[in-house]
């Protein structure tokens, strides 16, 4: 008994010996290590054009991740973002290509569809006490089915101009229309910045953290946790709808099937940055770091021709697991209700 009692304070002292700023920045060290490794392994990795490519590649995930961060902070999850994005993009494309409706009606209709699906998932979950993963799984089937029905299984290539500009437009181009900065990066940055300000400086943001830290304690403090859950799922539906229309413009077509990788990539990126699946800990800065880690890893592997293309997914999984373990070991001991 004496040995056990004396070893516990010693273990606490060893943990306390590590400065908090070191443990809190564990994902940043992961990102730095990846940048150094790929920078030394590939001559093209640190070139401005490739950095630009990484930003474009993670921009769609950043829009998805904005809404998913809110949901995860409450300790819940949304499994329907891929199908929500698909139906939002398809509705916007069909209204423009088939019904000949002029902008901004198709674009706004796509956002509205995504928002309504998110609201429906939140209402069902709170009204009937259904876990959010089941409610959003059900709405994902609804969204996928509607996408197939609306598209009749066909790809639509006549797209709304708003979607084309947001997804593949550029600003600050030269006289010949070349170069410039991708507008999709600005859209992603605006989403992340707005979400950061909401979570950091508004009462709603504090309620989101409180709900994730402890729903029962939040209720006792007077927080309507059901309304918070509905709000964050509605917001996640909105960002999924925006990501769907922007992605449609970037790819140049509206697809009849959801992209399954959007869900896993989004959750992986958000959690990699340090936002806890159990809720109450994390935020937009962590999501941004996670997005950069994910984009750096994907792009870095693509810039290493010596790696077998069939092994890249395996290597990605191994590195992601290692990064998650490092992040959890170094930062998982902090209180769950931290807002920074």
Q: Output mean pLDDT.
A: 87
Enumerate the strands of the largest sheet in spatial order, edge to edge or round the barrel.
1-2
Total domain count: 1
- Give a short account of the largest sheet: 2 strands, antiparallel
CATH topology: ABC transporter involved in vitamin B12 uptake, BtuC
How many strands?
A: 2
Residue share in helix: over 70%
Tally of separate helices: 15
- Give me the Rg, rounded: 21 Å
Strand content is under 5%
Uncertain runs: 1-7, 10-16, 332-340
Secondary structure: elements and pairs:
Layout: H1 2-17, H2 20-24, H3 26-41, H4 48-73, H5 81-97, H6 105-127, H7 132-151, H8 161-168, E1 170-171, E2 181-182, H9 183-201, H10 203-213, H11 215-220, H12 225-251, H13 261-272, H14 284-302, H15 312-331
Antiparallel strand pairs: 1-2
Helix pairs in contact: 3-14, 4-9, 4-12, 4-13, 4-14, 5-6, 5-7, 5-12, 6-7, 6-12, 8-12, 9-10, 10-12, 13-14, 14-15
What does this 3D model show about the protein?
- This protein has 340 residues and is mainly alpha-helical.
- The chain has one domain: ABC transporter involved in vitamin B12 uptake, BtuC.
- The protein contains 15 helices and two strands.
- The chain has a two-stranded antiparallel sheet.
- The longest helix has 27 residues, at 225-251.
- The model is unreliable at 1-7, 10-16 and 332-340 (pLDDT under 50).
């Amino acid at each position: 008994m004496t040995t056990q009692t004396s070893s516990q304070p010693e273990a606490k002292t060893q943990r306390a010996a590590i400065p908090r700023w070191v443990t809190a920045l564990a994902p940043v060290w992961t990102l730095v290590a990846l940048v150094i490794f790929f920078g030394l392994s590939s001559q093209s990795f640190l070139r401005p054009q490739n950095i630009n490519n990484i930003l474009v590649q993670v921009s769609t995930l950043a829009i998805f991740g904005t809404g998913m961060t809110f949901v995860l902070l409450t300790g819940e999850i949304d499994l329907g973002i891929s199908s929500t994005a698909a139906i939002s993009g398809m509705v916007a494309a069909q209204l423009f290509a088939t019904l000949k409706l002029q902008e901004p009606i198709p674009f706004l209709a796509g956002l509205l569809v995504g928002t309504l699906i998110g609201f429906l998932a939140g209402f069902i979950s709170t009204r009937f006490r259904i876990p959010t993963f089941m409610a959003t799984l059900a709405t994902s089937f609804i969204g996928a089915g509607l996408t197939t029905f609306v598209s009749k299984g066909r790809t639509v290539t006549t797209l709304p101009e708003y979607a084309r500009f947001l997804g593949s437009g550029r600003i600050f181009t030269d006289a010949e229309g070349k170069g410039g900065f991708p507008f999709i990066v600005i859209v992603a940055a605006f989403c992340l910045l707005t979400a950061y300000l909401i979570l950091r400086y508004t009462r709603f943001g504090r309620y989101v953290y409180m709900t994730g830290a402890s729903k029962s304690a939040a209720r006792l403090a007077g927080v309507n946790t059901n309304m918070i859950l509905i709000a964050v799922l509605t917001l996640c539906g909105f960002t999924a709808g925006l990501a769907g229309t922007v992605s449609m413009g970037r790819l140049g077509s509206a697809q009849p099937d959801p992209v399954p990788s959007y869900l896993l990539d989004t959750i992986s990126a958000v959690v990699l940055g340090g936002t806890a699946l159990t809720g109450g800990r994390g935020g937009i800065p962590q999501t941004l770091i996670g997005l950069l880690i994910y984009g750096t890893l994907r792009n870095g592997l693509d810039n290493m021709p010596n790696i077998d293309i069939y092994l890249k997914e395996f290597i990605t999984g191994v590195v992601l697991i290692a990064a998650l373990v490092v992040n959890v070991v170094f930062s998982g001991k902090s209180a769950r209700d931290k807002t920074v």
